Structure formats: structure tokens, C-alpha cells
Amino acid sequence: MSKRQANREEVVSRILEAAEIEFGLKGFKGASLQDIATRAELPKPNIVYYFHSKENLYKEVLSNIAESWNDLFDKATSEDDPATVLDSFIRTKLKQSFASPRSSRIFAQEVIQGAPFIGENLRTEVSTWFQSRVAVLESWMAAGKMRTLDATSLIFMIWATTQHYADFEAQIQALTGRDVMSESDQQRVGDTVCDIILSGCGLQRPSSC
To answer: Is tRNA-binding a UniProt keyword of this protein (predicted)?
Structure first.
């Protein structure tokens, strides 16, 4: 990688990180390019150069969040073991919720508002990806690798359960009396969620977990 390319990637990364914080704190309408530039410690023209507008930057933040969530499941095929894939997918999503709850809340708020900026993407690219994942689950069911059930509802359940720990962080803190979940707490949550979902699929949690 050239020095110029490395510098470009560093600048873009700083912009995206600052943008996620600002959008998380203030929402799309409340955040400004100047606020983002100040947080990134970069001139505002740098943001305009790379992203052209606040809307484009916001869409990129949302896209990165969605891609990071589903990266592991994206690689699953009909040849894989469903228990291993689903267990890893659930645990990865939970870790992301614990580590970066702000990301989940940004995405959730966009969808709650009717997905004004990513609606078209949801109906096209994301829908195509989603149907391909449903097809993998159904191939496992057809092969007798897991219980036959509604694959669409299963994916929705995994998303909802794992993202709950980010979107409702304040409620969880109030009810558990813990401001931060310890590693043992997170492990317990992961084990419990995986046990419940996998058993519902007629699967057992991998012994290595």
C-alpha cells in the first residue's frame, strides 16, 4: 500500500469514527459536518472531498454498521454446520452490542423513522442478501441438519435478541444494577441466548463454547 493510500484510509477512518459518534449523540438532523470535522480534528473540506455531503456520510456509517453485523453469516454455505455458524453469529452480534451500543442505536433509529435514507438499499441489496441467507437456512433444514421452521423469523429473532443489549442498554443497566457487564456476564448472556435459540432449532451448542 502506498503512503498516499494509507493516509487516505486513515483520514476516512477518522471521519467515519467521528461521524458515528456525532450521529449517535445528535441524530442525523442535529449533527453537522463542522461538528464531525472538529471531532475528527480535520478541516471540514476534507469531509466534503471524501463524502460530498452529510447524507452520503450518514449512509456510509449505516452501511458499515450493517456489514459488520452480518459479515460472519455472510460467509455461511449449505455445507457448513448450522450449530457452529449460528452460535458464532449470535456471539459476534452480542459482542458488538456490548462493545459498541451506539452503532446499533444509530441503525435502529433510522429504521424506526421509516428508513428514509436506507430504505431503497433495504429493498434491493439487503433484501437480496437476506433471501440468500434464508436459502442457506432452508438448505440445512432440507438436509436434516436442523429443525424445520420459518427461516425469516429465525433471523429476525437473532437480530432482535442480540441488538436488545445495545438498543435497551439503559433499561438493562437499571434492571440489573450494573453500569457495565463484566466478561463473565457477557459469557453468561451468550451461553443463555445460544442455548435457547439453538435448542429451538433442534441443535446443541458446540462443545468448545
So the answer is: no
Cα 171 from Cα 65, distance rounded (Å): 23
How do the pLDDT tens digits run along the chain, 209 residues long? Answer: 677 777 888 999 999 999 999 999 999 999 999 999 999 999 999 999 999 999 999 999 999 998 888 777 888 999 999 999 999 999 999 999 999 999 999 999 999 999 999 999 999 999 999 999 999 999 999 999 999 999 999 999 999 999 999 999 999 999 999 898 999 999 999 999 999 999 999 999 997 65
Please provide residue 206's backbone torsions phi and psi, each rounded to the nearest 5 degrees: -55, 140
Q: Reduced to 3 states, what is the DSSP secondary structure of residue 37?
A: helix
pTM for the predicted model, two decimal places: 0.88
Q: Which three cell numbers stand for residue 134?
A: 434464508
SS3 of 4, please? helix
Residue spans per domain, the chain? 1-52, 65-200
Q: What are phi and psi of 106, to 5 degrees?
A: -60, -45
Query: 1-52 adopts what CATH topology?
Result: Arc Repressor Mutant, subunit A (1.10.10)
The amino acid sitting at 86 is: L
Fold of 65-200: Tetracycline Repressor; domain 2 (1.10.357)
